[in-house]
Every structure is written in C-alpha cells, then in structure tokens.
Amino acid sequence: MQGDCALHRETEITSSLLRSPTACEKPCCPELKRILEKNGITDCMFAFIGGGKMADCLVDGFFSAGLIHKDSVAISVKSEKSKLSWQQRGYENVFTSNVELLSRFGKGIVFLAVHPDVWRAIITELPKDAFVEAKLIISVMAGVSMKELQSDLSPYNSGIVRLMPNTPVVCGAGTFLLCAEKNIGTKVEVAKYLTVKVGAYKEIDEDRFNVATTLANCSTAFIYTIIDAMADGGVLNGMNRTEAIELIARGVYGAAKMVLVTGVHPGMLKDNVTTPSGATIVGIRALERAGVRRAFIDAVCECTERLNEM
C-alpha cells in the first residue's frame, strides 16, 4: 500500500546528485513569469538580504532548476570579501548596503536570509518604508515568528511567508516548511511553486514551526553525522572511505524513500530487515546499548529549545 507523506512536490527525488544549470537566457523562465504576473508581481527580481549558506543553497537550487538567471538575483552581504566571492560566480548585483539593495531591486520578491541576531541590527538601520515596494517577502530566518516579522516590516502589508528550507534544496531534494500570513491571498502560490521546483513543502502552523524545523532542517546534520560515523566503521573493517560513504548514503536514501513511499512505520521496516540471531539485530543491540535512540530524542528536544530561545 502506498503511503502519503503529506508533502507537496512536483516530481520524485531522483538519484542524481546535482543537476546541470538550465536557467533561461531571460531574467526568469516563462512559467515563473506567468505565475508571478498571475499573482500581481511584475518584477522578476529575487532580492536576498543575506548571502550566507542558506541564500547560497536557494540561489543554486533555483538556478539549477531553470527558474532564474544570474542577472535576476540581487544580494546584500556584510563584507567586500563576500561580495567578491559572489561576483566571481557571475552574480553582478551584489551590495554591502541593504538600503541600496532594496532601493534598486526591492520591488519583486525579497528573501530575508540572515541570522536572527543580525536581523535585529538590520531592521533598526533600515528606514521604516524600506520594504513598501516589495510585492512578496519570504523569510527563511529560523526562530523569527510571523508576529515579529509583521511588527518589524510595518507599514509593509503585501504578504509575508515564513519558509524554512534545508540544504538539500541545492540538489533538488529540499524540504520546505511553509507558514503564510493570513491576508496574503493567492501570493502564497508563488512560494509553493518555487518549493516544488526544488523539492517539496509542508504547511505548518506557527506553534509547531520550531520543532518541525528541527525535524526537517537540523536533522540533515544528524544524518551526515551518522554517515560519517558509519564510514569510520567501514574503514575500520577494511573498506575504502569513498566507497563506504557512497554505500551508506545510498542505504540512507533507500530507507528514506521506503518510509515515504510505503507509509509503513519505520519500526516495522526495521523489523523486516532483522532476522533471528542475524547480524542486523546484533547491530541494533549495539546502538541501543550506546543510547543512540535517547541521544536522538535529546537532540530534537535541545535543538527545538534553542530555536524557541531565538
């Protein structure tokens, strides 16, 4: 029986790693332009306040999916070094001034992609009307609530979306959490369209947004740690590290797909792999002896607590 993971997406995740860039020659692809215009957005520019890791992943993901051209992205960064780094990759619209970014390219979609502590400093420096010409604001900042965003961005009132991606967006396998302002109307369809082109989205109410962020975003680092540790075990037992990492990653990919496609409880899927007196159950015993299950529960709780504190 096929399960429903309740995630909205356009296509299944493929086994390919990074897709070759297929961005349109024009500032944005025709399909995206139609979606934008249908929702009252005539400016195709994507303006990013913040040029760190998350902005990097989103820009790369959108570009690889053919949604944008490098000329249709504008980014503000905090240093000349970061500015040069982006420009060396072909992005010319890079600024060290948020005011200049918004005055020149803040009439389309504006992404807020900075650390919450940095955001507090930015919002105090910007003029009150800095965002009034933006047609849609998408925040990818962890721990900054919709209520805080509405207060910070006032008098802007054209629609705010909280969107929390994870880094696999760069290879078309992202998971997005989505929470939209009540008065946003159909503009939320723009955010949904972007997510399904580079992954999948799930609508989450605000009171569960932080724990959902832990499960969808922070969890990727947990999985990378598992892959790294298991690779050490493979090397200890004579495997080449590169081969070990590939085998483990494929195992993780297959296990995740089994959960999503079948809808079977992961505990039952685990039981289907173990056999009486077999190697797998011995390995499970070793994990339980080391307290791995409790460690993961604690990790989820502590990550969520930290997000609540932001």
From TrEMBL:
<feature type="binding site">
    <location>
        <position position="98"/>
    </location>
    <ligand>
        <name>NADPH</name>
    </ligand>
</feature>
<dbReference type="InterPro" id="IPR036291">
    <property type="entry name" value="NAD(P)-bd_dom_sf"/>
</dbReference>
<feature type="domain" description="Pyrroline-5-carboxylate reductase catalytic N-terminal">
    <location>
        <begin position="46"/>
        <end position="143"/>
    </location>
</feature>
<feature type="binding site">
    <location>
        <begin position="49"/>
        <end position="54"/>
    </location>
    <ligand>
        <name>NADP(+)</name>
    </ligand>
</feature>
<dbReference type="GO" id="GO:0055129">
    <property type="term" value="P:L-proline biosynthetic process"/>
</dbReference>
<dbReference type="GO" id="GO:0004735">
    <property type="term" value="F:pyrroline-5-carboxylate reductase activity"/>
</dbReference>
<comment type="similarity">
    <text>Belongs to the pyrroline-5-carboxylate reductase family.</text>
</comment>
<dbReference type="Pfam" id="PF14748">
    <property type="entry name" value="P5CR_dimer"/>
</dbReference>
<keyword id="KW-0641">Proline biosynthesis</keyword>
<dbReference type="InterPro" id="IPR000304">
    <property type="entry name" value="Pyrroline-COOH_reductase"/>
</dbReference>
<feature type="binding site">
    <location>
        <begin position="113"/>
        <end position="116"/>
    </location>
    <ligand>
        <name>NADP(+)</name>
    </ligand>
</feature>
<dbReference type="Pfam" id="PF03807">
    <property type="entry name" value="F420_oxidored"/>
</dbReference>
<feature type="domain" description="Pyrroline-5-carboxylate reductase dimerisation">
    <location>
        <begin position="206"/>
        <end position="310"/>
    </location>
</feature>
<keyword id="KW-0560">Oxidoreductase</keyword>
<comment type="pathway">
    <text>Amino-acid biosynthesis; L-proline biosynthesis; L-proline from L-glutamate 5-semialdehyde: step 1/1.</text>
</comment>
<dbReference type="InterPro" id="IPR008927">
    <property type="entry name" value="6-PGluconate_DH-like_C_sf"/>
</dbReference>
<protein>
    <recommendedName>
        <fullName>pyrroline-5-carboxylate reductase</fullName>
        <ecNumber>1.5.1.2</ecNumber>
    </recommendedName>
</protein>
<keyword id="KW-0521">NADP</keyword>
<keyword id="KW-0028">Amino-acid biosynthesis</keyword>
<dbReference type="InterPro" id="IPR029036">
    <property type="entry name" value="P5CR_dimer"/>
</dbReference>
<dbReference type="InterPro" id="IPR028939">
    <property type="entry name" value="P5C_Rdtase_cat_N"/>
</dbReference>
